[in-house]
Amino acid sequence: MNVYTYLTLKAWNTGLQLAFGILTTYVFLRILSPDVFAAYILVSAIGAYSSLADLGCSNLIYVSMRKAYLDGEHLGTGLEEALAALLTYGAVVLLVLFVVGALIVANVIDNHGRPLNLILYLLFWLLLLPWNIVRTTANAVDLYVPFEVLELTRHLLVTAFLITLLAGLEVREYLIAVNVVWGACFMIAAFYGRRLFDKFGAGKGSIAAAVVRLYRDRLASMKAAAAFNVSAFTIYVFPYFIIPAMSFPRDALVVFDTFYKVGRFGATAYRVAADAFLPMQTRAVHEGRTRDLMSSVGMVLAFQFVIFLVGAICLLAGSDRIFPVLLNGKVEISQAIVLMMVAMLLLELFQLTLEIILINSGLFEPMAKLYVTVVTALGTVALVSYLWELSFPLFLGMYVLVYGVGAILHVPLFLHYFGRQNRVSQTD
């Protein structure tokens, strides 16, 4: 695999992903009222939160398949487990779609007279769950480049359809189109999957046994991986569900959605380097070349710091022009919120880089303990904010503070597991 080809594709995909997130807010606030847009935000949060049904399976599959692939061992077992997880997640998608769809139709979740639109939007986000297994399997066997090419095509199409909303395309037509794109992507993935099954002699009839291996035989690892995944995702999205219950202004959810997207945009951009160097890093960990691992981490951090500087300058110097245009002048982003955005971008730089290495090296248990602790602290923040009726900026500031402590704690955790090996290699 050519790391520079992969890095280029990741850069293009990241740019399109960032553009899509920004354009979603820009376009929807021009064709929908803030109240209707808030319903779409809530539905997308539910769809994204459903990825917690992964329960760490994708991480376990990646670690086991990657190790077998690097060792030159048989991959049939890993492929069977990947297919079992894919089918299981498909069932989860249908279940969540049915339950939440019923709430939308019943107007428990405000449908504003367009329940089918919200259900289609929910489906668009739910399909990220099974797609995660496709990504995991491709990455484990060094099919990074074909997967990124497919992702690039998908991002181009859904972004193009989004732009056509401004040209008069109906929202329902847009939502149908983007879900059709999803269907085409899964069909292409199935083509690659069949070739892998034939190449490594995996048996499609062993799905039941594969499910048992995932959810029973690896129970200890599953618990730790599940705790990590649930906690990691909750850290980012729990304010979506907490804010509506607070006595905050009505536009607080839109403000947090903007805050969240800026942070996630930064994390997505950071992944350009982090993911591009991951194949090299997993090989270095596997072969005990800790010095090379540390060197690659330094390169990734340097690349990401440049991204942080660009983002920080844009936010600090241009927020008074960027956000009024993005939010169509309907919601105000204060300077205090902007400073919190900059702080989150800096904290994510360290957290994301080290998290990717630790998790993809199979260190689920220590990461789970750290993230459960952070979630517990955030729950305390939410309770205090509710009981004392704190202002929204103060609640968000406390959220950033707790997140920051968790991010910084990644450094001693990383050095504990890899720094000692590095010192030993330097003395040899």
Automatic annotation (TrEMBL):
Keyword Transmembrane: yes
Keywords: Membrane, Transmembrane, Transmembrane helix
Lineage: Bacteria, Pseudomonadati, Pseudomonadota, Alphaproteobacteria, Hyphomicrobiales
Protein name: Oligosaccharide flippase family protein
Membrane-spanning segments: 12-29, 36-62, 82-109, 116-133, 153-169, 174-193, 224-243, 297-318, 338-358, 370-388, 394-415
Domain of life: Bacteria
